[in-house]
């Protein structure tokens, strides 16, 4: 898969032997000078956990179908006079799980929830389970359940403080 902002190029390992991932990457890199940049991402190198289960395949199909429906709907909404005007905040979304639902969330909203320095969410939902984990692990500790759910290095140091060394 090659990633260009807003464009993903997928290539199967059994496709044309002349159009390799490297060739497509070099082509887009050369043609996009000054307009966009390009990077190469071979999914097989990133996968972990062995062969996908039937659940994984089914879930992948569901979210792919949902994503394609969303893209088709957005294209129909923004197509005018032969051009696509995708210039609103909800034009760029991520599809993810929120509680038990698949939700499209605008990237502009996610900006407020993200710690860019550490590349993680500002609030980790699972940190609220720490007191329970301590009980189950039989830690010798007080069972104070007032844990804030914040990571210490994130809550204690803002990016501005980290730069000044405060």
TrEMBL record:
Residues that span the membrane, as ranges: none
Domain Phosphofructokinase: 11-71
Keyword Metal-binding part of the UniProt annotation: yes
PANTHER family: ATP-DEPENDENT 6-PHOSPHOFRUCTOKINASE, PLATELET TYPE, PHOSPHOFRUCTOKINASE
UniProt keyword Transport, yes or no: no
Single Gene Ontology MF annotation: fructose-6-phosphate binding
GO cellular component labels: 6-phosphofructokinase complex; membrane
InterPro entries according to UniProt: Phosphofructokinase_CS, Phosphofructokinase_dom, PKF_sf
Protein source organism: Anhinga rufa (African darter)
Keywords: Kinase, Magnesium, Metal-binding, Transferase
Gene Ontology biological process: canonical glycolysis; fructose 1,6-bisphosphate metabolic process; fructose 6-phosphate metabolic process
Protein name: PFKAP protein
PROSITE patterns: PHOSPHOFRUCTOKINASE
Reactions that this protein is recorded to catalyse: beta-D-fructose 6-phosphate + ATP = beta-D-fructose 1,6-bisphosphate + ADP + H(+)
């Amino acid at each position: 898969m090659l990633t260009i902002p807003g464009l993903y190029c997928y290539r199967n390992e059994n496709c044309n032997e002349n159009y390799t991932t490297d060739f497509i990457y070099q082509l887009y890199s050369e043609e996009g000078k000054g307009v966009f940049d390009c990077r190469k991402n071979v999914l097989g190198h990133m996968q972990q956990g062995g062969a996908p289960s039937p659940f994984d395949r089914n879930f992948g199909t569901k979210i792919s179908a949902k994503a394609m429906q969303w893209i088709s709907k957005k294209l129909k909404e923004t197509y005018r006079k032969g051009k696509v005007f995708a210039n609103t905040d909800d034009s760029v979304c991520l599809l993810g799980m929120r509680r038990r639902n698949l939700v499209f969330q605008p990237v502009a909203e996610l900006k407020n929830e993200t710690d860019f320095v550490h590349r993680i969410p500002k609030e980790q939902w699972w940190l609220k389970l720490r007191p329970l984990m301590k009980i189950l692990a039989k830690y010798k500790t007080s069972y104070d359940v007032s844990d804030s759910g914040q990571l210490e290095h994130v809550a204690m140091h803002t990016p501005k403080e980290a730069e000044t060394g405060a």
